[in-house]
Amino acid sequence: MNESLINDLSKNLGRVKANTMADDVELKLRQYLKKMSLKPGDALPKETDLAEALGVSRNVVREALSRLRMLGMIETRKRKGMVLASPDILQAFERVLDPLIIDDTTLRDIFELRLVLEMGLADLLYVRMTEADIDELEQIANNEINKDKSFLVKNEIAFHGKLYEMTGNSTLKRFQIMLLPVFAYVIALVDKPVSGKIDHRGLVSILRNGSKEDFKKGMYAHLKPHFDRLK
Amino acid sequence: MNESLINDLSKNLGRVKANTMADDVELKLRQYLKKMSLKPGDALPKETDLAEALGVSRNVVREALSRLRMLGMIETRKRKGMVLASPDILQAFERVLDPLIIDDTTLRDIFELRLVLEMGLADLLYVRMTEADIDELEQIANNEINKDKSFLVKNEIAFHGKLYEMTGNSTLKRFQIMLLPVFAYVIALVDKPVSGKIDHRGLVSILRNGSKEDFKKGMYAHLKPHFDRLK
DNA sequence: AATGTTCAATATGTCCTACATATAGACAAA
DNA sequence: TTTGTCTATATGTAGGACATATTGAACATT
Q: Which nucleotides of D are covered by protein (CB under 7 A)?
């Protein structure tokens, strides 16, 4: 019983997964929604009709619908039936993104994804940011003087969060919020939190007076300890 | 009965959502998984036990489990029961990311997200890319000479896809693949596909001979038409 | 005309029972 | 040790039943 050999095999072959009818129905429903090119608000057939049309029990249909409902693709109302909704694309993500469950490789990948995002923010920032934004960011940065460590962590989050917010892209902002726990988790694994040569106040002053290229260099310097750990 | 007014109201207020028991159970199960800090492969109680413990019918439990199963958080096997799995974080995403269903604001957000990613790739690229990578990329770029438009679109995808691949971050790569339809959709909405001053072969030559900063500037020039449309 | 009230129809939400089916785990055979 | 056989069992599916909220209409009130 070579355990690791089995693990290898299983990884290479992939498990055989007998699709349940709920899986099929879920797929068919999604295809149906797409095919009919239904718009949000449009009514859907009722459960019993779907069950009959698909030749499965209402239970199976409900399992599939339950999934779509979770993803926010449909909404159901007591007597009216179901309507197509505008799904919140990040909602599903949120449920799964638990550092304790995600495997280490993916965890590292996500950490890197955050670095990529942070480095790419500049171009949006320099299009959208306002003086008021910078003022607010400066306040956050100034809060950091003479504070204990736990406060610093919170402030770190606030600072970078504000940066995302300043892009005026709310999906991006929410994405960042979701990635936070992963970031925190990876940081915790590392020996000690080092900060780059440029701190938050340095970044603020660049935003106020410097060019976009300056900011990109500054951000890289700020994140350099993380980049140095890449391999 | 101003229809659009009602629609607006509903959007601003949000609907009141009476949680179903399946919602509750789903939440409780997720909390349970977290609290017990179960590792992938660990066994879970069987459906009937869960139902009894939670004081709900097996149906409700199954709906909740069906959701977790879809997210890849658990796997069920016929006689053994359920085991905690290592969820594929992007799986859920994939299902929802249909340009036809996502609302326009989010669509624009995602498009911008892609720009951010693309601009941020450089730092990972210059750590990980190999000569062989660049060779392959060059081949893709050289394929573009004297080809019809539909081929160009495919090649465009291949080129940028290869860039993501070169970061050695498979999550990032998969993420890009998922965003492709959105990208294509947004592009299709725009008058005509313009390309920046630097084309793919230009980027390749920078990768081969230029610095990271050169590449960042090159990528910006390449994507400039898109950045110009931002507001 | 706008707001309240009543009321019946009905689609979803929930529970229950029953049975089919795959398979884990034990044991037997090679 | 490997391979075949068997059985208990947890999931998968079906279908019936009923509770419940809520729509939409009809009607009364201000």
A: 8-16, 20-24
